[in-house]
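Friendly challenge for the regulars: who can give me the structure tokens for this chain first? No prize, just bragging rights.
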Amino acid sequence: MQLLSLVVVCAYSLIALGVGVKLVLMSRQTRRGPELLVGLAFLAGGMVGYPFNIAATVLWGSNADLALAAYAVGQTGMAGSAVLALASWQVMFAPSSRRARVFLCVWGVAMAALLVVGIRTTQPDPSRFASSWYALLLFWQLTCYAVLAVAALHHAFMLHRREALGLSDPVVTNRMLFWGITEISVSLQYLITLCSIAMAKLGMAGFFSPLIIASLGVIAAAATYVAFATRTAGVSWTRTELGARAEG
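First reply, four minutes later:
Bragging rights claimed.
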């Protein structure tokens, strides 16, 4: 099981690297903000946040100073990924909304404050899961991805209804759909961790597993690749499958 977990973690990091680099390079051609923000979010979370947090846990028993440094980098990467993701929400779904910009700024400042407190009051060992500050830090990041999931799926649903009238592009609809799948996967990562923390505080056995978390990461990275890094966003095979089901 440990070997399988390691393989999945490595696969997640490599896919996150590929997707992140692809989107950043794409943003240089399209001159659009969403690709850049989403690409940087994947690089920050998948190539900095998650790997450095794992490294900090492994190093804690042998080199505490190095472990704490890796832990700080890892937590900063995860928080940075959340901020970039929420910024992509504002750019994609509320580019001209003043309230959205204010919400992003307030949320970002609170995220920075929680990050500092979390790094100062916790360490890369199981004791951090007993910290209310650490749980609040995770919950704050969860809110970002939950907002993105709701927004993306809502837009996908609205666009899909317009397709029958020829008022929307199926490719755009699919991009929103797969982007919603990405955000659901990331939200589940945080939700599983928070539920495990709550269960541990109640004396119950949690179900946190690096294998599950990394597997959800692979799903998120793959869905993002289909949404942003392919020309048709999977329209050819999703619409074919839906048509086959309707005929059946």
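Residues 242-248 have pLDDT under 50 and may be disordered. The longest helix spans residues 132-163. Your move, everyone else.
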